[in-house]
Write a structure and sequence with these properties.
single chain, 195 residues, alpha+beta, 8-stranded antiparallel beta sheet, 29% strand, DNA-binding
Length: 195
DNA sequence: CATAGGATCGCCT
DNA sequence: GGCGATCCTATGT
């Protein structure tokens, strides 16, 4: 399937991009092992003006520096000391917008995914939850800064987003999870779920 | 240097 | 539905 063009990620409307990512396919290749899943849940984080964003107010730290990279860069960070959370940086360089991928439906390499989670069979919604997305796809916070949709030589690490060409179907928007500290911004309908 | 807390998950009751 | 796991990151002294 065709890779999404980088221009997809360079647009300024991060909320629109989060919506459009529903139904797209994430394909990862680590150590020559390929796994993939269809994106079914996302959240938009609107850069410096969004209290829920790590880049709120223009904050820059060693961790968040990647958010200021050009659109199409992976921003992965550790949460609760356990979970790697995968985000896609969008817009131009210096504009720290990002989309958190919160859920996938496993597609290719399900055996590998079971292996990664230490299970023998999938539970009800094996790919729902941002920590699970990374677990299934083998994404680690050390992958932060990796450029998506590049034509790396086989053997290199790669994270790609493909256009499935299918209609994303119905989706709903609601407030984001776990951002109570963000005041009024916690109420913004920046979370998108494929029905 | 020390410490509090986090865009969570899974197991337990 | 409650709680412990687990460790990096940010911030303050």
């Amino acid at each position: 399937m065709p890779l999404l063009p980088l221009s997809f990620f360079l647009r300024n409307d991060v909320v629109q991009i989060a919506r459009e990512l529903l139904g797209k396919k994430i394909v990862t290749r680590f150590e020559g092992v390929t796994t993939s899943g269809i994106i079914c849940e996302t959240e938009a984080y609107a850069g410096v003006t969004d209290r829920a964003s790590h880049a709120y107010g223009g904050r820059r730290t060693a961790r968040t520096e990647v958010m200021y990279a050009v659109g199409g860069t992976a921003y992965v960070y550790l949460c609760y000391g356990i979970h790697s959370l995968f985000n896609i940086v969008t817009s131009d360089a210096e504009i720290p917008h990002a989309v958190l991928i919160r859920g996938i439906i496993p597609s290719d390499g399900t055996e590998i995914m079971l292996q990664r989670t230490g299970k023998t069979k999938f539970t009800r919604n094996p790919g729902i939850g941002p920590g699970k997305v990374s677990k299934l796809l083998g994404i680690h916070y050390s992958h932060s800064g990796l450029k998506l949709n590049q034509t790396y030589p086989p053997g290199n690490h790669a994270i790609n987003i493909e256009d499935t060409g299918t209609d994303q179907g119905s989706m709903k928007a609601c407030p984001r999870v776990g951002v109570d500290y963000a005041g009024a911004d916690a109420l913004l309908p920046y979370r998108f779920i494929l029905q």
